[in-house]
Amino acid sequence: MKINKRMQIILWIVFLVLFVYLNYSYIYLPRNEKIQQLDQQISTLQEKIAEGRRIAARLDELKKEYQELTARLQFVEVLLPTEKEIPEFLVLLEDTMEEFNINFNNFSPQNLAQDKDAIYARLPIKMTYTADYFEIIKFLDRLENFPRIVDIQDLRINPTGENAENINVTMTMFTYVLMKGTQ
Q1: 3-class DSSP state for residue 14?
Q2: Is 132 exposed, middle or buried (0-12, 13-18, 19+ CB in 10 A)?
């Protein structure tokens, strides 16, 4: 079968258009889309690299800041018991009260109260006790220098009956507890 020259040119043009269309649709467009995705990934990675370089440039400064914060945290952990250390704190408080001959009538730790976004909680302890005036002063002085942070509020002093030497004291004491879940 013989095809004339004009028909051959038309067939070549159709073949060429079909070839270009198939290459464009199934090769060029998917690869171009892939190139755009890779370009976007490259720019994201370059931004991360630049951020990493900025952090690396400040590495010595950040290490120093980290060490300072770690030292501050260790200091705070000494002053603030964790929840596990509350019984030890209460035993230490009771031993101190016995040391100063304080007869406690009521000693009731309350529930922990934590403010929103705080790394510590407050442990209120309501106490009522009786002791000699000077023993109470010594006890309160010892609380001021306690190894844990202690805050005394609502201190009420009343004489007890006929014995003028003994005083009845009612107070609310707060100690602060470091919440481990927030570190």
Answers
A1: helix
A2: middle
Beta strands of 118-179 (E only): which ranges?
Answer: 120-132, 150-160, 163-178
**What predicted TM-score, i.e. pTM, was given to this entire model?**
0.54
Instruction: Break the chain into its structural domains and give their ranges.
Output: 5-57, 80-182
| Nearest Cα residue to 121 out of 80, 178, 73 | 178
pLDDT tens-place string over residues 87-134: 777 788 888 888 888 888 887 888 888 877 777 888 888 989 888 888
Give the residue among 107, 104, 74 at the shortest CA–CA distance from 90: 107
Q: Other CB atoms closer than 10 Å to residue 116's CB: what's the count?
A: 4
Closest CA to 124 of 162, 166, 153, 81: 153
Structure tokens at 75: 């200091």
CATH class of the domain at 80-182: alpha beta
Does residue 58 sit in helix, strand or coil?
A: coil
